Amino acid sequence: MEHRKLVIIGSGAAGWTAALYAARAGLKPLVVAGIQPGGQLTITDDVENYPGFPDPIGGPELMARMEAQALRYGTEVVHDTVVRVDFDQYPYVLEGDGHHWKAEAVIIATGAAARWLGVKGEEAFRGRGYSACAVCDGHFLRGKEAAVVGGGNTAVEEALYLANLCSKVHLIHRRDSLKAERILQERLFANRKVEIHWNRAVAEIAGTEGLTGGVTHLILDRTDGTGPQEELRIDGVFAAIGHDPATEVFKGQVDLDSHGYVVVSPGTTRTSKNLIAAAGDCADPHWRQAVTAAGMGCMAALDIERSLAVRNA
Predict the structure, then answer these.
(1) Whole-angstrom Cα distance, residue 311 to residue 108?
(2) What are phi and psi of 274, to 5 degrees?
(3) Residue 166 a catalytic site member
(4) Is 133 a catalytic residue?
Protein backbone atom coordinates (compact mmCIF):
# COMPACT_ATOMS: atom_id res chain seq x y z
CA MET A 1 0.00 0.00 0.00
CA GLU A 2 1.59 3.25 -1.19
CA HIS A 3 1.95 6.10 1.30
CA ARG A 4 1.19 9.54 -0.16
CA LYS A 5 1.15 13.00 1.32
CA LEU A 6 -1.78 14.11 -0.84
CA VAL A 7 -4.15 12.18 -3.10
CA ILE A 8 -6.52 14.09 -5.39
CA ILE A 9 -9.53 12.06 -6.53
CA GLY A 10 -10.71 13.33 -9.91
CA SER A 11 -9.11 14.90 -12.97
CA GLY A 12 -11.43 17.69 -14.07
CA ALA A 13 -10.81 21.42 -13.79
CA ALA A 14 -10.90 21.25 -9.98
CA GLY A 15 -8.59 18.26 -9.73
CA TRP A 16 -5.91 19.54 -12.08
CA THR A 17 -5.91 23.03 -10.58
CA ALA A 18 -5.59 21.57 -7.09
CA ALA A 19 -2.73 19.42 -8.36
CA LEU A 20 -0.97 22.41 -9.91
CA TYR A 21 -1.05 24.43 -6.69
CA ALA A 22 -0.22 21.45 -4.51
CA ALA A 23 2.74 20.45 -6.69
CA ARG A 24 4.15 23.97 -6.65
CA ALA A 25 3.82 23.88 -2.86
CA GLY A 26 5.95 20.74 -2.71
CA LEU A 27 3.16 18.35 -1.67
CA LYS A 28 3.91 15.87 -4.49
CA PRO A 29 0.25 15.16 -5.24
CA LEU A 30 -1.06 12.02 -6.86
CA VAL A 31 -4.12 12.43 -9.11
CA VAL A 32 -6.40 9.41 -9.45
CA ALA A 33 -7.93 10.19 -12.84
CA GLY A 34 -11.23 8.34 -12.37
CA ILE A 35 -13.72 6.82 -14.75
CA GLN A 36 -13.88 9.92 -17.00
CA PRO A 37 -10.42 11.53 -17.15
CA GLY A 38 -10.80 15.24 -17.77
CA GLY A 39 -14.35 15.41 -16.43
CA GLN A 40 -17.38 16.91 -18.14
CA LEU A 41 -15.33 19.26 -20.31
CA THR A 42 -14.12 16.30 -22.35
CA ILE A 43 -17.61 16.10 -23.91
CA THR A 44 -17.76 19.85 -24.62
CA ASP A 45 -16.84 20.84 -28.17
CA ASP A 46 -16.19 24.57 -27.75
CA VAL A 47 -15.45 26.42 -24.51
CA GLU A 48 -15.94 30.17 -24.94
CA ASN A 49 -16.14 31.37 -21.33
CA TYR A 50 -12.87 30.18 -19.78
CA PRO A 51 -10.61 33.19 -19.09
CA GLY A 52 -7.47 33.55 -21.18
CA PHE A 53 -8.82 32.09 -24.42
CA PRO A 54 -10.19 34.82 -26.72
CA ASP A 55 -10.99 32.16 -29.32
CA PRO A 56 -13.04 29.06 -28.46
CA ILE A 57 -11.01 26.10 -27.26
CA GLY A 58 -12.13 22.49 -27.34
CA GLY A 59 -12.94 21.02 -23.95
CA PRO A 60 -10.57 18.03 -24.37
CA GLU A 61 -7.72 20.37 -25.39
CA LEU A 62 -8.32 22.64 -22.39
CA MET A 63 -8.17 19.67 -20.04
CA ALA A 64 -5.04 18.33 -21.75
CA ARG A 65 -3.36 21.69 -21.17
CA MET A 66 -4.37 21.70 -17.51
CA GLU A 67 -2.98 18.20 -17.10
CA ALA A 68 0.30 19.07 -18.82
CA GLN A 69 0.73 22.14 -16.62
CA ALA A 70 0.17 20.13 -13.44
CA LEU A 71 2.52 17.35 -14.55
CA ARG A 72 5.22 19.88 -15.36
CA TYR A 73 5.49 20.78 -11.69
CA GLY A 74 5.72 17.22 -10.43
CA THR A 75 2.17 15.93 -10.18
CA GLU A 76 1.82 12.19 -10.67
CA VAL A 77 -1.25 10.60 -12.23
CA VAL A 78 -2.64 7.08 -12.14
CA HIS A 79 -5.50 5.93 -14.34
CA ASP A 80 -7.63 4.16 -11.78
CA THR A 81 -10.97 4.69 -10.04
CA VAL A 82 -11.39 4.94 -6.27
CA VAL A 83 -13.99 2.35 -5.26
CA ARG A 84 -13.70 2.45 -1.45
CA VAL A 85 -12.37 4.83 1.18
CA ASP A 86 -11.83 4.61 4.92
CA PHE A 87 -11.64 8.04 6.48
CA ASP A 88 -12.11 6.73 10.02
CA GLN A 89 -8.45 5.73 10.29
CA TYR A 90 -5.40 7.89 9.70
CA PRO A 91 -3.57 8.03 7.41
CA TYR A 92 -6.66 7.73 5.27
CA VAL A 93 -7.11 4.60 3.17
CA LEU A 94 -8.18 4.67 -0.49
CA GLU A 95 -8.74 1.61 -2.63
CA GLY A 96 -8.83 1.64 -6.42
CA ASP A 97 -9.52 -1.12 -8.90
CA GLY A 98 -5.81 -1.83 -9.10
CA HIS A 99 -4.09 0.30 -6.46
CA HIS A 100 -4.26 1.01 -2.72
CA TRP A 101 -3.02 4.13 -0.98
CA LYS A 102 -2.60 5.63 2.46
CA ALA A 103 -2.87 9.41 2.33
CA GLU A 104 -2.09 12.15 4.83
CA ALA A 105 -4.53 14.41 3.01
CA VAL A 106 -7.23 14.01 0.36
CA ILE A 107 -8.94 16.38 -2.07
CA ILE A 108 -12.27 15.13 -3.42
CA ALA A 109 -12.80 16.49 -6.94
CA THR A 110 -15.03 13.83 -8.48
CA GLY A 111 -17.44 16.23 -10.18
CA ALA A 112 -21.08 15.76 -11.06
CA ALA A 113 -23.03 14.65 -14.11
CA ALA A 114 -26.07 16.30 -15.62
CA ARG A 115 -29.25 14.26 -15.80
CA TRP A 116 -30.19 13.87 -19.45
CA LEU A 117 -33.66 13.31 -20.85
CA GLY A 118 -33.04 9.84 -22.25
CA VAL A 119 -35.05 10.41 -25.42
CA LYS A 120 -34.64 9.69 -29.12
CA GLY A 121 -32.14 12.03 -30.80
CA GLU A 122 -30.33 12.87 -27.58
CA GLU A 123 -26.97 11.35 -28.51
CA ALA A 124 -27.07 12.67 -32.06
CA PHE A 125 -27.59 16.30 -31.08
CA ARG A 126 -25.69 16.60 -27.79
CA GLY A 127 -23.33 19.53 -28.30
CA ARG A 128 -25.15 20.51 -31.50
CA GLY A 129 -28.07 22.41 -30.07
CA TYR A 130 -28.69 20.16 -27.09
CA SER A 131 -27.00 20.97 -23.79
CA ALA A 132 -27.45 20.85 -20.03
CA CYS A 133 -25.92 24.26 -19.28
CA ALA A 134 -27.50 27.49 -20.52
CA VAL A 135 -24.76 29.63 -18.99
CA CYS A 136 -22.18 27.60 -20.93
CA ASP A 137 -23.94 27.39 -24.28
CA GLY A 138 -26.73 29.99 -24.33
CA HIS A 139 -24.53 32.40 -26.27
CA PHE A 140 -24.85 30.20 -29.37
CA LEU A 141 -28.61 30.89 -29.39
CA ARG A 142 -28.49 34.67 -29.15
CA GLY A 143 -31.48 36.08 -31.02
CA LYS A 144 -32.94 32.60 -31.61
CA GLU A 145 -35.61 30.43 -29.98
CA ALA A 146 -34.65 28.05 -27.19
CA ALA A 147 -36.42 25.46 -25.08
CA VAL A 148 -35.74 24.49 -21.47
CA VAL A 149 -37.01 21.20 -20.04
CA GLY A 150 -37.82 21.04 -16.33
CA GLY A 151 -39.86 22.64 -13.58
CA GLY A 152 -37.52 23.28 -10.66
CA ASN A 153 -35.28 26.16 -9.68
CA THR A 154 -32.61 25.22 -12.21
CA ALA A 155 -35.05 25.15 -15.11
CA VAL A 156 -36.61 28.49 -14.22
CA GLU A 157 -33.22 30.14 -13.67
CA GLU A 158 -32.00 28.80 -17.03
CA ALA A 159 -35.14 30.07 -18.78
CA LEU A 160 -34.74 33.53 -17.25
CA TYR A 161 -31.08 33.62 -18.21
CA LEU A 162 -31.88 32.65 -21.80
CA ALA A 163 -34.64 35.26 -21.98
CA ASN A 164 -31.88 37.89 -21.88
CA LEU A 165 -30.28 36.37 -24.97
CA CYS A 166 -32.96 34.67 -27.03
CA SER A 167 -35.90 35.99 -29.02
CA LYS A 168 -38.18 33.52 -27.24
CA VAL A 169 -37.86 30.79 -24.61
CA HIS A 170 -40.15 27.76 -24.29
CA LEU A 171 -40.30 26.12 -20.85
CA ILE A 172 -41.50 22.53 -21.14
CA HIS A 173 -42.82 20.88 -17.99
CA ARG A 174 -44.54 17.53 -17.59
CA ARG A 175 -46.89 18.79 -14.87
CA ASP A 176 -49.38 21.66 -14.50
CA SER A 177 -47.41 23.52 -11.82
CA LEU A 178 -43.76 24.32 -11.16
CA LYS A 179 -41.60 23.15 -8.27
CA ALA A 180 -39.42 26.28 -8.34
CA GLU A 181 -39.39 28.84 -5.54
CA ARG A 182 -42.30 31.28 -5.60
CA ILE A 183 -40.15 34.34 -6.31
CA LEU A 184 -38.60 32.64 -9.32
CA GLN A 185 -42.01 31.63 -10.62
CA GLU A 186 -43.22 35.22 -10.34
CA ARG A 187 -40.27 36.45 -12.36
CA LEU A 188 -40.87 33.78 -14.97
CA PHE A 189 -44.60 34.49 -15.32
CA ALA A 190 -43.85 38.20 -15.70
CA ASN A 191 -41.37 37.68 -18.53
CA ARG A 192 -43.09 38.12 -21.87
CA LYS A 193 -40.37 36.24 -23.74
CA VAL A 194 -41.17 32.99 -21.94
CA GLU A 195 -43.93 30.63 -23.02
CA ILE A 196 -44.75 27.71 -20.72
CA HIS A 197 -45.89 24.40 -22.19
CA TRP A 198 -47.74 22.65 -19.38
CA ASN A 199 -48.28 18.89 -19.27
CA ARG A 200 -45.73 18.26 -21.99
CA ALA A 201 -42.72 15.92 -22.18
CA VAL A 202 -40.05 15.68 -24.85
CA ALA A 203 -40.43 12.48 -26.85
CA GLU A 204 -37.77 13.24 -29.46
CA ILE A 205 -35.07 15.80 -30.26
CA ALA A 206 -34.93 16.26 -34.02
CA GLY A 207 -32.88 18.23 -36.50
CA THR A 208 -30.50 18.09 -39.44
CA GLU A 209 -27.53 15.74 -39.61
CA GLY A 210 -23.97 16.48 -40.68
CA LEU A 211 -21.20 18.70 -39.37
CA THR A 212 -23.23 21.88 -39.88
CA GLY A 213 -26.51 20.37 -38.70
CA GLY A 214 -28.25 20.88 -35.41
CA VAL A 215 -31.53 20.86 -33.52
CA THR A 216 -34.53 22.20 -35.42
CA HIS A 217 -37.53 20.97 -33.47
CA LEU A 218 -38.88 18.82 -30.65
CA ILE A 219 -41.64 16.23 -30.64
CA LEU A 220 -43.72 16.65 -27.48
CA ASP A 221 -46.02 14.18 -25.76
CA ARG A 222 -49.07 15.35 -23.83
CA THR A 223 -48.64 13.91 -20.34
CA ASP A 224 -52.31 14.46 -19.48
CA GLY A 225 -53.47 12.30 -22.40
CA THR A 226 -55.56 15.06 -23.96
CA GLY A 227 -54.36 14.83 -27.53
CA PRO A 228 -51.76 13.80 -30.11
CA GLN A 229 -48.07 14.66 -30.17
CA GLU A 230 -46.98 18.20 -31.02
CA GLU A 231 -44.05 19.62 -32.96
CA LEU A 232 -42.23 22.61 -31.47
CA ARG A 233 -39.82 24.51 -33.75
CA ILE A 234 -36.77 25.72 -31.83
CA ASP A 235 -33.04 26.29 -32.42
CA GLY A 236 -31.75 24.65 -29.25
CA VAL A 237 -32.85 22.82 -26.13
CA PHE A 238 -31.49 22.60 -22.59
CA ALA A 239 -32.11 19.76 -20.15
CA ALA A 240 -32.56 21.27 -16.69
CA ILE A 241 -33.70 18.33 -14.59
CA GLY A 242 -30.82 18.29 -12.13
CA HIS A 243 -27.30 16.98 -11.57
CA ASP A 244 -25.96 13.96 -9.71
CA PRO A 245 -22.70 14.51 -7.81
CA ALA A 246 -20.25 11.62 -8.05
CA THR A 247 -20.02 11.06 -4.29
CA GLU A 248 -21.52 7.62 -3.70
CA VAL A 249 -18.20 6.24 -2.47
CA PHE A 250 -18.00 8.93 0.24
CA LYS A 251 -21.33 8.21 1.93
CA GLY A 252 -20.77 7.78 5.65
CA GLN A 253 -17.20 9.03 5.33
CA VAL A 254 -17.75 12.80 5.05
CA ASP A 255 -20.90 14.87 5.47
CA LEU A 256 -23.08 15.07 2.35
CA ASP A 257 -26.19 17.21 1.90
CA SER A 258 -29.62 15.80 1.03
CA HIS A 259 -28.72 15.81 -2.69
CA GLY A 260 -25.37 14.08 -2.24
CA TYR A 261 -23.07 17.10 -2.54
CA VAL A 262 -20.07 17.19 -0.20
CA VAL A 263 -20.67 19.74 2.56
CA VAL A 264 -17.84 22.26 2.98
CA SER A 265 -17.43 25.01 5.57
CA PRO A 266 -18.53 28.42 4.20
CA GLY A 267 -15.70 30.27 2.52
CA THR A 268 -13.45 27.19 2.49
CA THR A 269 -13.20 23.76 0.92
CA ARG A 270 -12.86 21.98 4.27
CA THR A 271 -15.14 19.00 4.83
CA SER A 272 -16.31 17.39 8.08
CA LYS A 273 -12.98 15.50 8.29
CA ASN A 274 -9.65 17.17 8.98
CA LEU A 275 -7.24 17.20 6.03
CA ILE A 276 -9.97 16.24 3.57
CA ALA A 277 -11.11 18.99 1.20
CA ALA A 278 -13.65 18.99 -1.63
CA ALA A 279 -13.65 21.10 -4.77
CA GLY A 280 -15.62 21.54 -7.96
CA ASP A 281 -19.04 20.25 -8.94
CA CYS A 282 -19.11 17.50 -6.30
CA ALA A 283 -19.29 20.26 -3.68
CA ASP A 284 -21.01 22.99 -5.70
CA PRO A 285 -24.76 22.66 -6.32
CA HIS A 286 -25.09 26.27 -7.52
CA TRP A 287 -22.52 27.47 -10.08
CA ARG A 288 -21.14 24.34 -11.81
CA GLN A 289 -18.74 26.21 -14.11
CA ALA A 290 -15.24 25.22 -15.17
CA VAL A 291 -13.81 28.47 -13.82
CA THR A 292 -15.48 28.10 -10.42
CA ALA A 293 -14.32 24.48 -10.22
CA ALA A 294 -10.77 25.60 -10.96
CA GLY A 295 -11.06 28.31 -8.31
CA MET A 296 -12.23 25.77 -5.74
CA GLY A 297 -9.35 23.50 -6.74
CA CYS A 298 -6.91 26.29 -5.93
CA MET A 299 -8.65 26.89 -2.60
CA ALA A 300 -8.55 23.19 -1.73
CA ALA A 301 -4.80 22.93 -2.35
CA LEU A 302 -4.16 26.01 -0.21
CA ASP A 303 -6.48 24.76 2.55
CA ILE A 304 -4.66 21.40 2.61
CA GLU A 305 -1.20 23.01 2.49
CA ARG A 306 -2.03 25.18 5.50
CA SER A 307 -3.67 22.35 7.44
CA LEU A 308 -0.66 20.09 6.87
CA ALA A 309 1.67 22.87 8.02
CA VAL A 310 -0.31 23.25 11.25
CA ARG A 311 -0.39 19.50 11.83
CA ASN A 312 3.35 19.11 11.25
CA ALA A 313 4.39 22.24 13.19
Answers:
(1) 20
(2) -60, 140
(3) no
(4) yes
